[in-house]
Write a structure and sequence with these properties.
Blueprint lengths: L9 H22 L6 E9 L4 H13 L3 E2 L2 E9 L2 H12 L18 E3 L4 H8 L11 E2 L5 E6 H6 L9 H8 L7 E4 L5 H15 L7 H16 L1 E2 L2 H5 L8 H6 L3 E5 H8 L7 E4 L11 E4 L5 H13 L3 H9 L43 H15 L2 E8 L16 H15 L5 E12 L2 E11 H14 L9 H14 L6 E8 L11 H11 L7 E7 L5 H11 L1 E6 L5 H10 L7
Parallel strand pairs: 1-3, 1-4, 7-8, 7-9, 12-13, 12-15, 15-16, 16-17
Antiparallel strand pairs: 2-3, 4-11, 5-11, 6-9, 6-10, 13-14
Helix pairs in contact: 1-2, 2-13, 6-7, 7-8, 7-14, 14-20, 15-16, 15-20, 17-18, 18-19
Pfam families: SBP_bac_11, VWA
InterPro entries: VWF_A, vWFA_dom_sf
Organism: Micromonospora maritima
Length: 584
Amino acid sequence: MRNSLRGAGAAAAATALVAVVAGSWFGYQQLAGPNCSGRIELSVSAAPEIAPAVRGAADEWVANGARVGDTCIAVNVTSAEPVDVAAAVASKHGATLAGVGQASGTAVTPDVWVPDSSTWLVRLKAGGASAFAPGNGASIARSPVVVALPEPVATRIGWPDKDFRWSDLLKQVTASKPLRAGIVEPTQDAAGLSGLLSLTAAASSTGEAGSPQAQEAMVGALRALATNRSSLRQDLLARFPRSSDPTAIANGLGAAALSEEDVIAYNNTKPPIKLAALYLDPPPISLDYPFAVLPGIEPSKASAARVLYEALRSGDFKDRLAGQSLRAPDGNWGRGFQAPTGAPSPANGGEKQVPPSGQGGAAELDPVAISTATTTWSVATQSGRMLCVIDVSGSMKEPVATANGASREQVTVAAASQGLGLFDDSWSIGLWTFSTNLQGTQDWDELVGIGPLSGNRGALQRGLASIRPSKGNTGLYDTMLAAYQKVQQDWEPGKVNSIVLFTDGQNDDDNGISQKALLDKLKKLRDDEQPVQVIIIGIGTEVNRKELKSITDVTGGGAFVTTDPSKIGEIFLQAIALRPPAPR
């Protein structure tokens, strides 16, 4: 069974060191031989459940004389949680991953990475690691994603005879007496992400895309899952009932998206209550274990990696995978594999997303759907304190060709209104507008003061509905300074205190402070003990990215620019989701 190493510090480093020594001994013996004109040391980082199979195959390959030409190859295989390696890779390549955070220091970037899912490669590329080509990462194994239920609970709802759909699970988790469903943080766990994608797709089908009914169903499902979420897979598994007592079963975890391998490994520990694996329709994205050669490695190492990949495609490797409760890429399994009750036939593996050859897994995934799922999850399940500031200068009247003629103001307000529906009552939110001379010589106008949504959600909805463009210019600098001071003044511990400002132009206020004066004042006001994150969303072609970034470089946060105002909703969610965690 997999153990999450995230945050394990010295223990993780020690484990990695042991793995390196164990996985490379044969390699270094070979390198000492007289027939090598040189040596290549290839580092491989693999997800914990597949690492023993990869290490065994690599050791055998090296012992049998692994080489490229006259150059001998040593292979160091380490076991590392995919989220830890993803954080390290993102840091190295300047990418951002929603919900992942900073690299922990317990993982390093290898030459070859075998995470549990191609979704990691897709997220890294979408997050800014442009060198990650979608075709890089052919599958070497597979494990379907299932919904795991305690067998008594599964039997009660018709398992193993009944076929289940994700819409059935959605009804169960959002019922008046809901099934207690949980999830491993989907921003940090590929099986959790796969389950989230399937469940939100089922929620979206309850009404027209983007309709209030569909959004209500989606948010309800997300919050139901978030009630029993865990950052660590082991913690989630520990919540399943450990006794056959009816009370224990009723109070324990009732369902969670896990991999088939997770369920087999859990049941192999002989728990008091075994888990049933439900293979829901439509099949979710499986874990496909891509063999990814990371960007920037030496050509000789890339050549060695290609030869190693071929060694991991043999029939013998399929049997090694079976020993780890994993399938081959085509869904078949090797000798000794013990399939759960109800497992789909090896003829198709129950898979529809990845081609039978196992090639191009990442290319088959939708980066927009993945990004939307992770950002929506982050927004809907976190808590914060935010001042929303919306530009109402005259240029916001401009029509948006890609939004059926709606104005910039209208698409901005629509994005803010949709975002408001994702925030739960633990949030505190306020609303300002700005232009020039909105209140006498003051450039901003407070429509709703910052307060808990439990009391001012209606006021915010009315405030947003009342927004209309003015005839003024863009009083950006004075407004930003006032907003920063306001949020800092009533700073709330335990939450991310932030400003989200929408604008379609540059500062254009002859009577306001200068850029230098603004930046100087913000530097003096900044307090790392009580940080205020500033998110600026630039709309259209008239914004100055450099100007916006100069502000967020001082305050922390980020500047996002979209030349297509109809994309503002997507940018808004991404901006909120990528904020750092609240101070502790």
